[in-house]
Design brief:
The complex is a heterodimer. By secondary structure, chain A is mainly α. Chain A contains 35 helices and 4 strands. Classes of the chains: A mainly alpha, B mainly alpha.
Chain lengths: 907, 130
């Protein structure tokens, strides 16, 4: 069973490609897989009919106990046969119907994805897995309805369908989760009626599940979307919106009937709303001139009747449910496809312009005739048996049942009239005036309707076959207890026969007075039209308005307000948390002694930052920022962090250079603060609150005892494990090398991104402006060796970094500083010298080194990035050194790349 | 010392945010650098300044009063990443100035914002109603 899902999904993925390779043969090629699945399910019929239940399971989210358990019982099998069988015919039909559409491959893909999802839905035994497939069908339906997305109508219909079914899906999810909790089981097969119905959550579960099912199956008042969904191409309407997807809700109702059903509430809601939907659909259907819309509304009717039949829970009612389900899928699928063919060949679906087509399209006409007879419930068609059983089932319920029966007689009479209209008005009578040139459609297109129509006839005429093999087990899976199943065309003179005769008589009368009936229905419908779709538009409009209003409150376009609110929010949440937990920032013990260099460093950092924050000008800003960074470097030295101090020093140098280069081109920066005093105060408050929060948090952290002995571990293992004395460097290139790899990737990405922005538009510039060179010969001659020395020094720093202050990061930055000297001296002349080794190459090389260094560990069976060492002439060489070289190259390359692009434009 | 460092980090963070709230984009970019420095200092402080010596171990010495190496390693890379981010912000600033000639924080967001392609699309065609 998993295989069938998988192959259909695979088929869907391959569909666009197959279509591109062979547009003419794609149709039947793609239909092969569903057909094969159909054959597989047919082969499973004997086993299932014998009462066997096939299951297969794959763990999906073991932690949450969600498994992809598939379970094939009578009901699932029935649906699976319909999905794959009709699906295969639909794929064939689409090949003819949409043969000239330029996105047909995509269409096949959507259709097959839907098929997979729908099949998963009916096979899944797990509640959650079923829900996932359920939602997937909604998504696929959205894509298929909006397939002709150039039309605004299609987009609107698709959105409406998605919102209604998606909203119902949310309710269903809640219902299923509650059901799982109440039933203490997450499999349909493991749920027990007694446990669930005794639970206090039962009413909530029932209502939520019902909302989900009713939206999906277009029950009143959620039926709006189904007629609009007819904007989809006809194969979609035939498949999703009549034969399969809209029956997903019905399926779930049937599936849960043994668990949730039996009570008065369940029956009342299902019968009441089902009957209401049925009448409504029939009244709306008879008004239509558009064949497809008429079919859509009759589908609504049928869905209502199916819902109602589940609610009866009588032996005949449930048999009728299964019979009607099958009969409807057959004749409605056939009718939809045939209407599509008529539309395709005559260019219209309007009843007023059709007539006398039987001579032009005999095969389609034959199929429509058979299907319409089944639709009308004439013997010996399958539809007739379904209708007989329906009446009997309703009558079994007593007085309420009789009332509903009367309503259903009226409804079915309207259906009879509709069926008659579809066949007689279209194919018989006088020739219509159509825009197209009618012709019999190709075999791909008449095959589906014909097979389905003949099937509807065959199942009825030889009704022992479906009784034995299909209906029996399906009914047993729906029913709360065992039900005796026996189908017959003629059961003697029963009340149901009278009801049938009455239905046909009334239907005939309706047909011959179609115009009056339509007139009456239109009058009734006027009120409906006003309260239905229009209300939906109004509602949706309101939702958009509210959403727009909410968005405007937050997306006001002011960066500063965003920033201020976000900062304030962070401060408030952290401070609030601190208050709730009751942190103690003032109880820190074992604090280190205050040192003079440390204090000087802090003061310098603060003074510099304050200068950068408040002063006007450009040079001042550069200088203050540099001073702040240098102060920080001094502080790092005072707390015994030489590597950090060195890094800070180099970074600060480069920062100043970059800043100076960019600032030259920018206008003067005024003093900080807003024009308005109020805004300044507000910003000041936000800033001060954040500052307080930061200080408080740091001291709270310091007041806690240092958890674990990580520091000690690193200090103890650095030399024996990493062969390095510089613990910080060993951590970077060995113990935590994967982290470092991630970090230098970030640096590389930032560099590549920044370089693009810095040098953007350069190629379009015919005369690239460059940084003017310093005219001084002395400087130029002096700089060359100095830069070379810096480069050498950087290599030394890299090499010794494992044991003494230094390493790849610092080495790379020192090398970059040397390069910066060259840039400042030679301006863009340096670019020519760089053509041989471009900085991106260096970055790539560096990343390759770091990534490659990890594989040595892998090769010797250790985890990725484990150190690997060899001893050469008394010197330990290891992969961490290679890694550090990679870091060096990446950092060096990144800075060079940014600088190179900067000088290309500045000037 | 921790207190002094924590207060320094706090004030620098406040200054950084103050700068990022400034009208002028240039100062916003500088604010990113200052805020980054403040956070680096904060991370180091949270790791405590215990120990009299830098975190170096040589063969025959017992490891006792060395500084905590882990926050140092973290901050070392953070500084380099902070620099890369700073240059990226600088590049955005430069490009914005070239394209829009504007360096006012709020005006820039208005200038660079483009309406969504289907912004004015009518969702409510009257056709297709039942």
């Amino acid at each position: 069973m998993h295989v069938s899902l998988l192959t259909i999904a695979l088929n869907a993925l391959l569909a666009p490609w197959i279509w591109r390779v062979s547009p003419r043969h794609a149709g039947w090629l793609l239909a092969l897989v569903p057909a094969a699945c159909f054959a597989w399910f047919v082969a499973a019929i004997p086993a299932v009919a014998a009462g066997e239940v096939l299951t297969a399971s794959i763990a999906w989210v073991p932690a949450l106990d969600v498994a992809l358990t598939l379970r094939l019982d009578g009901l699932s099998l029935l649906f699976a046969l319909l999905i794959t069988g009709i699906g295969a015919l639909i794929v064939l039909y689409s090949a003819g119907y949409l043969h000239d559409h330029h996105h047909l491959g995509r269409f096949y893909a959507y259709l097959l994805i839907f098929m997979m999802a729908m099949l998963g839905l009916v096979l899944a035994d797990d509640l959650i897995a079923m829900f996932v497939f359920w939602e997937l069908t909604s998504v696929a339906s959205y894509l298929l309805i909006s397939y002709q997305h150039e039309k605004g109508e299609s987009r609107r219909a698709a959105l409406q369908a998605l919102l209604i079914t998606g909203g119902g899906g949310l309710a269903l999810l809640a219902g299923l989760v509650l059901l799982g909790i109440a039933g203490e089981a997450w499999q349909f097969s493991a749920l027990e009626k007694g446990v669930v119905q005794a639970h206090s959550l039962f009413p909530a579960i029932m209502l939520l599940v019902l909302v989900g099912c009713f939206t999906k199956s277009a029950q009143f008042p959620f039926h709006l979307w189904l007629p609009n969904a007819m904007n989809a191409p006809t194969p979609v309407s035939a498949y999703l919106h009549s034969a399969t997807m809209v029956k997903a809700g019905i399926y779930l109702l049937a599936r849960l009937n043994p668990v949730l059903g039996g009570g008065a509430g369940w029956s009342t809601i299902l019968i009441g709303l089902g009957a209401l939907t049925a009448v409504l659909g029939a009244v709306l259907a008879i008004r239509q001139y558009d064949l497809k819309r008429m079919l859509a509304y009759t589908t609504v009717t049928v869905l209502g009747q199916l819902t109602m039949l589940i609610g009866t829970n009588t032996t005949y009612g449930l048999q009728a449910f299964v019979l009607y389900l099958v009969a409807h899928s057959f004749y409605k699928g056939a009718l939809f496809m045939a209407v599509g063919s008529i539309d395709h060949s005559t260019g219209t679906r309007d009843l007023r312009h059709l007539g006398g087509l039987i001579k032009l399209m005999p095969i389609t006409g034959f199929a429509v005739g058979l299907a319409a007879f089944s639709n009308a419930g004439l013997p010996p068609f399958f539809g007739f048996i379904a209708k007989e059983f329906k009446y009997t089932g309703l009558m079994q319920m007593g007085s309420i049942g009789w009332t509903v029966t009367l309503v259903m007689i009226l409804t079915n009479a309207l259906l009879v009239a509709a069926a008659a209209l579809i066949f007689f008005r279209t194919f018989l009578g006088k020739r219509g005036d159509w825009p197209g040139h009618p012709h019999e459609v190709p075999a791909f297109m008449w095959l589906g309707p014909l097979l389905l129509a003949i099937g509807g006839f065959g199942l009825g005429a030889w009704n022992h076959w479906p009784e034995t093999w299909l209906v029996n087990t399906a009914v047993q899976s729906v029913a709360t207890g065992p039900v005796e199943v026996s189908l017959y065309l003629w059961g003697g003179i029963t009340p149901a026969v009278f009801a049938s005769v009455l239905t046909l008589g009334l239907g005939a009368w309706f047909y011959f007075h179609a115009d009056q009936v339509r007139h009456l229905a239109t009058r009734l419908g006027k009120a409906w039209n006003y309260s239905g779709d229009l209300l939906w538009d109004l509602l949706l409009n309101r939702v958009f308005q509210v959403a727009g209003w909410v968005a405007r409150q937050f997306q006001h376009g002011s960066l500063r307000l965003h920033m201020a609110l976000m900062t304030l929010m962070i401060s408030i949440s952290v401070l609030g948390w601190a208050l709730v937990v009751g942190v103690q920032p003032f109880s820190a013990e074992n604090l280190s002694a205050v040192t003079v260099p440390g204090v000087i460093g802090c003061l310098l950092a603060l003074g510099g930052a304050a200068g950068a924050a408040f002063m006007p000008g450009r040079l001042v800003l550069v200088a203050s920022l540099g001073a702040s960074g240098l102060g920080l470097a001094l502080f790092f030295v005072s707390i015994n962090a030489p590597d950090v101090a060195l890094t800070q020093l180099m970074v600060e140098t480069l920062t100043v250079v970059f800043l100076a280069m960019v600032l030259r081109r920018l206008p003067m920066v005024p003093a900080s603060g807003s024009r308005y005093r109020r805004v300044s105060i507000w910003h000041g408050v936000v800033a001060v609150v954040l500052g307080l929060t930061v200080t408080l948090m740091i001291m709270t952290a310091v007041s806690q005892p240092l958890p674990g002995d990580l520091a000690e571990w690193f200090l103890t293992n650095s030399l024996p494990g990493g062969y390095g004395s510089n613990v910080v460097n060993v951590i970077l290139v060995d113990f935590r090398a994967v982290d470092t790899l991630g970090e230098i990737v970030v640096v590389a990405i930032a560099a590549l991104g920044a370089a693009t922005l810095l040098g953007a538009g350069q190629a379009a510039d015919p005369k690239p402006k460059g940084l003017p060179e310093f005219g001084s010969v002395l400087l130029r001659q002096g700089m060359r060796p100095l830069a070379a020395i810096l480069l050498l020094v950087s290599l030394v720093i890299l090499w010794r970094g494992h044991n003494l202050p230094g390493g790849g990061f610092i080495g790379g930055l020192v090398a970059a500083t040397g390069f910066t000297l060259l840039v400042v001296t030679f301006g863009r002349g340096i670019r020519r010298g760089l053509e041989r080794i471009t900085p991106p190459t260096l970055i790539g090389l560096g990343l390759a080194c770091t990534v490659g260094a990890g594989f040595f560990g892998l090769a010797s069976g250790l985890p990725y990035m484990s150190g690997h060492w060899v001893e050469l002439a008394g010197i330990k060489l290891g992969t961490p050194l290679l890694f550090d070289i990679g870091v060096f190259l990446t950092v060096f390359g990144s800075v060079m790349h940014m600088l190179r692009n900067l000088i290309g434009r500045a000037g | 010392m921790e207190w002094i460092a924590a207060i320094t980090a706090g004030i620098m963070a406040a200054l950084g945010v103050w700068m990022m709230l400034d009208r002028h984009l240039m100062r916003v970019v500088l604010g990113i650098a200052v805020l980054g420095n403040a956070i680096n200092l904060g991370v180091l402080t949270a790791g405590r300044f215990a120990g009299e010596r830098a975190a170096f171990v040589f063969g025959n010495e017992a490891v006792t009063d060395a500084a905590n190496p882990l926050p140092q390693a973290l901050v070392l890379t953070a500084i380099v990443i902070g620099f890369a981010l700073f240059v990226f912000a600088l590049a955005v600033l430069k490009r914005t100035h070239e394209l829009h000639g504007d360096k006012d924080t709020d005006k820039v967001s208005a200038a660079t914002e483009q309406p969504a392609p289907d912004h004015n699309e009518d969702h409510h065609e009257p056709e297709g109603r039942a």
